[in-house]
Specification:
The chain is of the alpha+beta class. The protein is built from ten helices and 14 strands. The strands form three sheets. It has a seven-stranded antiparallel β-sheet. It has a four-stranded antiparallel β-sheet with strand order 8-13-10-11, with no helix packed on it. A three-stranded antiparallel β-sheet has the order 1-2-3, with no helix packed on it. A hairpin with a 2-residue loop joins strand 4 and strand 5. It is globular.
């Protein structure tokens, strides 16, 4: 796909919009219809228009995930980005059909059909949970900080016990209780109907993907309106200001559930982890061991990178997804957590060909500093040799 910062051929802004598409005028005021734009005549922006409010494509039957369309829309050229939704869909679909792997398209279609089967048969228990009743579910202090929308305001409700790790109250007890109730109701339906569901990830065997039974719009709103405003201050170097997609799930720990989770990094830029509740839990805390890129995942942690955290019901922990972490084994009791992986399409495209992550990978930074020290030492040695000549 060719990207050139939004230049268009030919320039549509020479014409004017009509209900039927685009028309162009000559010096005498006559107009003629123009064909709908396509990838041959219009090129995507090199950088996304981050302040653009993308359309919602959830109600359309598409070949690709609606989230892909929402993300790609921010890259549309200036003359297309504010067009009617169907014009944008046709343009983006043509690009995706040409460049997106066929296997990915088939997977998307299968996932859509899988979710359609669930949502057409599963009876929701708490309907208002799916629309995110802000005043009913959020902590008042959190809402005040969101309304203020300043770094100082967020720091007023958060603590940072370890670099890149923040804790704060986000949901009230009512939200936690009814979310647990909804998940348990869904699991009962799965058991009764013998419906085979997908696991949240490769490491957790016990849990449910929230998007699979109707929480996609709610979690979209949570990311856009509540996590992104925080992340733009504290995780700007990993795309915190451009979070636009997510993977949300609930996992359970206990004697007959998952006991622990090995060291890993999340497939995201920013991770929200909220303990919804626990019962007589012993052990089971989170263990952090420093932020690493994929090339340095197995390197040793320095002493100042080690941090242990014990979950508190109703309290959130927000951290860089690149920080290596694990869930320690629980010895008794149970715990249930809501986890939200927040992703930035723009950041992922930015680092596609990048091999230096010293801004956030401690090992990349250590190696960069070592190279700088070696360069300085070599320069000094070269000067000494010249002085003795």
């Amino acid at each position: 796909m060719t990207l050139d910062g939004g230049r268009t051929q030919p320039p549509l802004d020479a014409g004017h919009e009509t209900s039927g598409g685009m028309e162009y005028g000559d010096s005498n005021g006559h107009t003629e219809s123009a064909a709908r734009p396509n990838y041959l005549t219009h090129r995507l922006r090199l950088n996304p228009k981050t302040d653009h409010e993308a359309d919602n494509y959830e109600d359309l039957e598409l070949d690709f995930s609606p989230l892909i369309f929402r993300s790609l829309e921010r890259y549309l050229p200036p003359n297309l980005i504010n067009q009617e939704r169907d014009v944008k869909v046709d343009f983006m679909r043509e690009i995706l059909l040409r460049y997106y792997p066929e296997s990915e398209r088939i997977m998307t279609q299968k996932l859509r059909e899988y979710r359609r089967k669930i949502m057409s048969n599963y009876q929701r228990l708490h309907e208002d949970l799916y629309s995110m009743n802000v005043e009913k579910f959020f902590s008042p202090s959190f809402l005040r900080a969101i309304s203020e929308n300043t770094e100082q305001g967020f720091r007023g409700i958060m603590s940072e016990p370890h670099p890149g790790v923040f804790t704060f109250e986000i949901f009230n007890q009512q939200f936690c209780e009814i979310m647990i109730s909804e998940v348990e109701n869904f699991e009962r339906w799965v058991t009764e109907t013998k419906f085979r569901i997908m696991k949240p990830n490769s490491l957790n065997k016990h849990g449910v993907v929230l998007d699979d039974f109707g929480f996609q719009s709610m979690l979209d709103k949570l990311v856009k309106d509540y996590i992104c405003p925080i992340s733009k201050f504290f995780f700007h170097d990993v795309g915190g200001a451009t979070l636009d997609t997510h993977h949300g799930y609930v996992i359970q720990f206990g004697d007959d559930k998952d006991v622990d989770v090995p060291f890993h990094v999340d497939d995201a830029e920013v991770t929200l982890n909220v303990c919804l509740g626990s019962r007589s839990l012993s052990g089971g805390g989170l263990c952090f061991r420093g932020s690493r890129c994929k090339d340095h995942f197995n390197t040793d942690a320095q002493l100042d990178e080690v941090f242990n955290y014990q979950h508190v019901p109703g309290r959130a922990i927000l951290h860089r997804s690149s920080i290596r972490h694990c869930a320690r084994a629980s010895t008794s009791g149970s715990r249930i957590n809501l986890v939200l992986w927040c992703r930035s399409t723009a950041f992922r495209q930015l680092i596609t060909n990048q091999n230096d992550f010293s801004d956030w990978c401690a090992e990349c930074r250590r190696k960069k500093e070592e190279r700088q020290r070696q360069a300085i030492a070599a320069a000094k040695l070269d000067l000494l040799k010249k002085d003795h000549e």
